[in-house]
Amino acid sequence: MSRLRRIVDFGQQVWLDNLSRRLLESGRLERWLEEDAIAGVTSNPTIFHKAIAEDPLYQDDLARLRDQEPDPERRFEALVLPDIRAACDLLRPRYEATGGDQGYVSFEVSPHLAQDAAGTLAAAERLWAAIDRPNAMIKIPATRACLPAIRDAIAAGLNVNVTLMFSPRHLDDVFTAYRDGLAARHAAGQPVDHIHAVASFFLSRVDTLIDGQLPESAAHLRGRIAVASAKTAYARWREVFGDEAFATLRAAGARPQSCLWASTGTKNPAYSDVLYVEELIGPDTVNTVPDATLAAFADHGEAAETLTAGLDEARERLAELKALGIDLDDVGERLQREGLAAFERAFDELLRLVD
Fold first, then answer.
1. Residue 316 gets which letter from DSSP?
2. Gap between the Cα atoms of 230 and 2, Å rounded
3. Catalytic positions, please?
4. DSSP 8-state code for residue 146
5. Cβ(210)–Cβ(335) below 8 Å
6. What is the active site of this protein (predicted)?
């Protein structure tokens, strides 16, 4: 049995953090779905920049669109949304077989809208309509400004992948927005049983930043904080979606918003290349992995239910960090700002490429 497929035994989905026309037309994505139980796909501007720059399959369509579509952003969407639809169609049987629990494909709104709730919601609704697939997910950043857009997108019946989450504050804000959106939709007499959302909690960047702030006396915390934070986030998830406040929505068919572990490619070569997969396997969660991490786990990863193990130790590590004067919420705000700036640069480079 595939090592990746063993993760499924513990109730976790593995999604691929990559998409390109070559991946679709070569049959490689389909083989991963069949052989390794890959249950979803995510995309972002960096992924599509690499695909368009390197994949000759885009060039004829791009030349045609340069004549037909004057706006670079709309040109980019016209170029890649067929790939999003094709991936959705490829994953549609899994979506239907699991009653909508699996089989999603994510596409991101422009990062330049991250401080514009109305603009983000309008873009999310436009992209949702353009993709026109029930197993699409629209990625919206977890900025404070976009929390109303997340809530309203859920209330409008969209599937949402909330991205750029780094801290306990981000987690609570996003869980609240999701629940409020479901509650508003339910109160309006609209169905909630088809809506699915994930909360993408970024990991490796947390360790990269915090490792550089730790004194030598706290060297034992290096490479340990992201996993500890994720374990406590999952414990918080169980509290938020297991309480009586969610019971009414659950009875109406609503699903809890799933925790998704993102940024799982190990950046520090001193750490295991499957650190953010092996340490965070548990039920009702998603791990989205780039190709290299996928290959590494397929080669030597070990699957076991690790997410719920060592929770007390995780909390002790976070308490040590706080005693050192390092606040995870402050770290999260910095990383979110830096992540947004990186996404904006990637998006601008992408638009220059298609222009």
1. H
2. 25
3. 139
4. G
5. no
6. 139 (schiff-base intermediate with substrate)
